[in-house]
Amino acid sequence: MRKTIELSAEESRDYFLKGSSYFNSDLPSYLSFEPILAGVVRVLNENDYKGFKSSNPSGLSGVNYSLLANKDGRFAWRPFELIHPAIYVSLVNLICKPANWACIQNQFSKFSGGAIECCSIPVVPDSDEKGAEAQIKSWWVNVEQRSLIYSLEFSHVLQTDVVDCYGSLYTHSIPWAIHGLVRSKKEKGDLSLLGNKIDSYIQDGRYGQTNGIPQGSVLMDFIAELVLGYIDEQINLKLGQPTDFRILRYRDDYRIFANNDNKTEEILKIVSQELMSIGMKLGVSKTVLSRNVVEGSIKQDKLAGIDLQDLGDANAKTMQKQLLRLHSFGQRFPNSGALRRLVSEFHSKISLQTERPDDLEVQIAIAADIGFVSPPTLPAIAGISSHSISLASSEEKPSLWAKVYNKMKHVPHNGYLDIWLQRVIQPLALPFESDEHICKIVIGESAGLWDNSWIASTDLQNSLNTHAMVIKPANQVEEVIKPKEIELFSQKAWLY
């Protein structure tokens, strides 16, 4: 299992150009961005979009596409951002030029070896592993297990994280991370400088904004790690060698290990000050100090989830009782990683059910409410619902799906949810309406994702045909969502 930064320039380019790297969350099996990326690569080759434009894209507001995913069933949401493919491929080409890649590798080596141990640089799976599985293994070994080992040396652990990390990252800090603050300030605006080019490409897709980077791709995870690595270096300079403390960082989450309150608070102050220099701040509500490292190193929802798993089927013999236990857990720990994991495991279990239960509608109602309260569970809830409704009679199915659909459509700001609702309804040829552009594309309607009006090249325009992302008819997929179809969701649940 290698880190992306350990790849050659050619290997890194191949990796970043995968559809699963472009958008690293689950989509139904009939959707893939791979054909569009491949088409753009054929036109651009190893060049960038600059020679194919008629105007500056930074003057347009819809160059990238925002795909909203609701986080709590109410008014909190996560905006996934689908970077314009021409800009995305250009970014990959730029970063993965051998000289540029060597420069970035050198910077990452400078950031390591100090007080902060970074555990979140994206990893590339071995030949028999999937990407999410490899990342999960990396997190489990380098964060959770390392934290428990530190209980032998330290009595205190303080956990904190950055508020809206991607949305608040100052894009001008990208050249700071690559070239240093002094040179970047001196050569500000010089587009021969790699960091300035990356900064300008990102701004071109985001209406010229300098606050925030797109969320939802491995490439932007990598850029975030580059900037956070620069902050690690600044913190290391302030703290010196870690003789009586340790710090683990997994992307924007920090774990500070020490033997007294004063030391942890001193370190926290320095971390906070350095993050503020790039527009980030720590979340007060998620900053927790524990005086027992073992207890503090494992999230409460995970501990509660372990207790729930250990109760076994003997304590909840029917599917309804097991669903009620999950529902109760979801009320205590909504949107938690442990809930996602438990729901995924229940999906695998209920998939073995072959006969219609007497309480079928009750089971469907409980499952739907879990998804309504905790929308991040939706892919697995869709799988559970699709299996349960498949056991109903053909006369019952339209009514059952209509009830689920009518309930879930009240979740606000959730195009991602609509994509999965469409997945379970489309094979049954039932009515489905959505304003989400990807849903319209699936049924053959004309709907754009990115503003392409700034592109002069007809060939590049043609390569951006959004219908290419539908790799097979949605109404011909299996009615039931099998656990394998949401494998990425299941694997990512174990990150929490």
In words, what does this structure look like?
The chain is α+β, with helices and mostly antiparallel strands. Helix content is 50%, strand content 8%. The chain has 23 helices and nine strands. The chain has helices at 9-16, 19-22, 34-44, 85-95, 98-111, 131-149, 165-168, 173-179, 181-186, 194-204, 218-239, 261-276, 293-297, 300-311, 319-332, 337-350, 360-373, 378-390, 397-408, 415-425, 437-442, 458-463, 487-493; strands at 2-3, 65-70, 77-82, 116-118, 123-124, 156-161, 246-250, 253-258, 288-290. The strands form three sheets. It has a five-stranded mixed sheet, sandwiched between helices. Strands 1-5 form a two-stranded antiparallel ribbon. Strand 7 (246-250) and strand 8 form a beta hairpin. Helix 4 (85-95) runs antiparallel to helix 10 (194-204), helix 16 (337-350) crosses helix 23 (487-493) and helix 18 (378-390) runs parallel beside helix 20 (415-425). The model is unreliable at 128-134 (pLDDT under 50).
